[in-house]
């Protein structure tokens, strides 16, 4: 996530994106930040429209401008589960560190009509100030322990990795529908116009829809992507469009051999 790229905090930290772990069950954490003082989990939601958190049972209901409503699984329950399992894991390995979590809505236009009181909810532009305001006192983990925890998580991530799913389920990538899905009407086939995505079906526009498509690519096909593969998967017109999107990712190799890492290794700050 762009907001975290140049983040600075007054202490060292590691950021993991799309971390897959098996603790009590399979969990996939969108963003996990480990610091000497606390662990933070961000559950990222790419949902537009007017959003209501309903309780008992917990559900997320989204209403579009058209009046159409969609119901989603509650990100609250999911986040609570992740926080619990990460707490279990850190206790198991002997670290008594607080684990916090927040739900992040990635579209600035999401309108949270009925927020939840149980969980912190953020828009993506609030992430940095939210992290800066986390109260910390004495450090709990030494630099060495933090490094150990980071390596431990990475090994656990690699040990449990059912991805890419195409390989796991024996599906040929060419059988998948390529293209970018519209977060408003769910139709696949958004068009890249300058630096934005435009939906020919409902007219929606944004500049982040490729992020979800590339997360899907990492889960379905491969954790790395070339410029050509990106053009074909996102239905882009030329290599410059793909290039501009891919600069957000770590690159290995040069020229024709260049590959971009969609599942990021933890970045040491
Ligand atoms: Zn649309």
Could you characterize the architecture of this molecule?
The chain starts with a helix and ends with a strand. Strands 9-7-3-2-1-16 form a 6-stranded mixed β-sheet. It has a 4-stranded mixed β-sheet with strand order 6-5-4-8. It has a 3-stranded antiparallel β-sheet with strand order 10-11-12, with no helix packed on it. The chain has 2 domains: 158 residues, Trna Endonuclease, Chain: A, domain 1, CATH 3.40.1350; 104 residues, Arc Repressor Mutant, subunit A, CATH 1.10.10. The longest helix is centred in the first third of the chain and has 18 residues. The C terminus is likely disordered. The chain has 8 helices and 16 strands. Bound molecules: zinc ion. Zinc ion (ZN) binds next to loops. The site of zinc ion (ZN) has 8 residues, from loops.
- Strand proportion, as a percent range, falls in 25-35%
Question: What is the class of the largest domain in the CATH system?
Answer: Alpha Beta
Element-level helix/strand string = HEEEEEEHEEEHHHEEEHEHHEEE
**Integer average pLDDT:** 88
Give me the secondary-structure category.
Answer: alpha+beta
Gap between N and C termini, in Å? 15 Å
Taking the sheet with the most strands, its summary is: 6 strands, mixed
In DSSP terms (H or I, runs of 4 or more residues), the helix count works out at: 8
Q: Radius of gyration over alpha carbons?
A: 19 Å
Which distinct ligands sit in these coordinates?
zinc ion
Number of domains: 2
Organism: Viridibacillus soli
Protein name: NERD domain-containing protein
Domain NERD: 1-112
């Amino acid at each position: 996530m762009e907001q975290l790229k140049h983040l600075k905090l007054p202490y060292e930290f590691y950021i993991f994106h799309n971390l897959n772990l098996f603790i009590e069950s399979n969990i996939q954490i969108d963003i996990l930040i480990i610091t000497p003082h606390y662990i933070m989990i961000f559950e990222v939601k790419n949902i537009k429209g007017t959003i209501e958190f309903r309780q008992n049972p917990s559900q997320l209901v989204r209403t579009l401008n058209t009046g159409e409503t969609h119901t989603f699984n509650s990100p609250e329950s999911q986040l609570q589960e992740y926080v619990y399992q990460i707490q279990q894991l850190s206790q198991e390995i002997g670290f008594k560190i607080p684990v916090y979590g927040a739900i992040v809505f990635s579209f600035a236009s999401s309108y949270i009509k009925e927020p939840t009181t149980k969980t912190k909810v953020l828009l993506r532009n609030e992430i940095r100030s939210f992290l800066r305001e986390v109260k910390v006192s004495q450090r709990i983990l030494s630099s060495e322990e933090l490094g150990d925890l980071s390596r431990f998580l990475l090994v656990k991530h690699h040990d449990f990795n059912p991805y890419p799913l195409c390989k796991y389920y024996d599906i040929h990538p060419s059988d998948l529908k390529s293209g970018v899905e519209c977060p408003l009407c769910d139709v696949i086939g958004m068009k890249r116009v300058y630096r934005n995505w435009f939906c020919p079906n409902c007219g929606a526009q944004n500049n982040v829809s490729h992020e979800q498509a590339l997360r899907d690519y990492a889960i379905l096909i491969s954790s790395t992507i070339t410029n050509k593969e990106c053009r074909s998967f996102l239905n882009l017109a030329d290599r410059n469009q793909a290039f501009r999107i891919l600069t957000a990712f770590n690159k290995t190799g040069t020229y024709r051999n260049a590959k971009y890492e969609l599942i990021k290794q933890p970045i040491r700050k």
